[in-house]
GH16 domain-containing protein (Tricholomella constricta), 411 residues
Amino acid sequence: MLLAPMLPFSLSLLVVWLPVLWPVFGYELVRDYSGLSFFNGWDFYGAYDNLTLGDVMWLNVDDAFGQGLAYVNRAGNAVLKVDNMHNVAFNQKRNSLRITTQAAYAVGSLWITDMVHIPFGCSVWPAFWTKGPKWPDNGEIEYVLQFCLQAYLLNRDSIMEAINLMDYNQMALHTLPGCMHTTPPNQMGVSKELDCSMPSGCVVAETAPNSYQAGFAAAGGGVFAAQFDVSGIFIWFWSRPNIPLSILQATSASPIDISEWGPPSASFPSTTCNITQFFSPQNLVFDITLCGIWAGLPVEYLPACGNSGPTGICYNDNVVGPGDRYNDAYFEIKYVRAYTTGGIAPTPTAAAVAIATPLKTTTTTSMKRPAGTALVSSPLFYPGSARMNTEMGGVIVLLCLLVGTVTSSIL
């Protein structure tokens, strides 16, 4: 007799508190690189460009700060730049920077960077990319700016990469043979090369405006994000006016929800590229080189920059001589943030439609081992209505359990 009146009360409590069991956020922040501490946790290359054969010397940490090529400006943003203050004699190289995170981030990671300015100009070849510890054998992801052309670029991911006076970003994967790119319906960019073991990697060209060059800066910059997941590698770009609300509103202590991000610019699903086979934990890299095996190739250089000097040769007409032609050859970075699910994250939303607005975050956590894992399914996040359906399923299951318990008590 006493149990019957308690049933509605118990059910209502369950419904009220059930959402706490299913957080909507998918990723926990594990490292924030920003402000005065931005350069903590990065290694400076300290040698000439023996990778893409560019005409630069990538400085060590002391020379980088001493020569003013690395600093935090009054806005609190990190600046990495090419030397634009000195004359360079023929057969000499111009000073520049390449920095790499000391931490490596495993499958199950998410990386977001907010940048105000990206290097551009004739001969300029900037990139924000990732690489495995045993590069080139452990994969590479290129995020921003177009990408390199040799086998040593294998096992990396290019998030941002471009050259010279291009007006769009390219994204690419570089792997050993066996990884292919198939274009899914939820990719907004245009697929180019499909074989990730080719010198160019498997390449996707950005179609959203202002992803590179002067347009990027004029729009106030933008945000690049890359999801490194067992289900695939997915890369987004948003110009400043279109940054998702979740990125704008996230704090230094909050996780991040990617459910409203919409379809990615580049989508590399694992159906034709086994992510855990071709990619090990990845270090993040920023670099700026000049000319080299891509920006300096006549077929790439001459159409846009052939009239920038008397010889028509990238090195002669740009690197040699005064540095003021490199006034736009710098990164200005608000932050880089690394997140992890602690498990398998969902694939992005499938509909190839325009996306909404932006999101934001910050924090520092020291890492003794790679963050993330691809082996344990994570209950943290479910995309869109799928998450709601799971919650409703959970309500039904738990209600049944509760009713069963109450019924058995009555009986």
